[in-house]
Amino acid sequence: MDTGTRTPIQYGFSLIELMVVLSIMGLFMLLVITNTTFLHRSSMYAQLEQIYSICHLARQTALATNKAQTIQFDLLTNSYTWAHRKESLPRSLRFGFIPGTKGPPGNPTMPISTPITFAGTKITFHPDGIIQSGTLYLIDEHATSMYAISNAVAQFSYLRMYRYDGTWHIL
């Protein structure tokens, strides 16, 4: 029979154990946020690529058929239509711009005032290869990321894609 004093069982965590657990949780949260941001930007870029591809196809169709092709954009529904096919932007994206940003991307001198500067919110591709000039801006739902497709007024028409992160970068 043990008559010695017993030490009470202690429950809880030491300060070191608590700091290790909090550090691991902080690292995990950082990885989740970083991956979420990466996936978000990737989906925005994929949508930009899709619009750009449809523009390229519309231009090639205009050249091949000798008939003008038009892609019509709807700012209210965040959708666009070409050849009787309607596409909608994902819910996390919309046609828009970050307030205070200057554009167009190729020569940013004036504050952007409208998300689509193509006349009539449509891009017309002519049979001679000329593309109507203007710019289309895409932003995320939080207005933190912005991309653009633009055709400047030039002798030779071509569309360019841009990314905005404080300054414009051609893609």
Give a quick rundown of the structure.
This protein has 171 residues and is α+β, with helices and mostly antiparallel strands. The chain contains one helix and eleven strands, in the order αβββββββββββ. It has a single domain (15-170), classed as minor pseudopilin epsh domain (minor pseudopilin epsh fold, 3-Layer(bab) Sandwich).
Structure description:
The protein has 171 residues and is α+β, with helices and mostly antiparallel strands. It has one domain: minor pseudopilin epsh domain (minor pseudopilin epsh fold, 3-Layer(bab) Sandwich). It has one helix at 15-65; strands spanning 69-74, 79-82, 85-88, 93-95, 102-103, 110-111, 122-125, 134-140, 146-151, 160-164, 168-170. The mean pLDDT is 87. The strands form three sheets. A five-stranded antiparallel sheet has the order 4-8-9-10-11, covered by helices on one side. It is elongated. The chain is 30% helix and 27% strand.
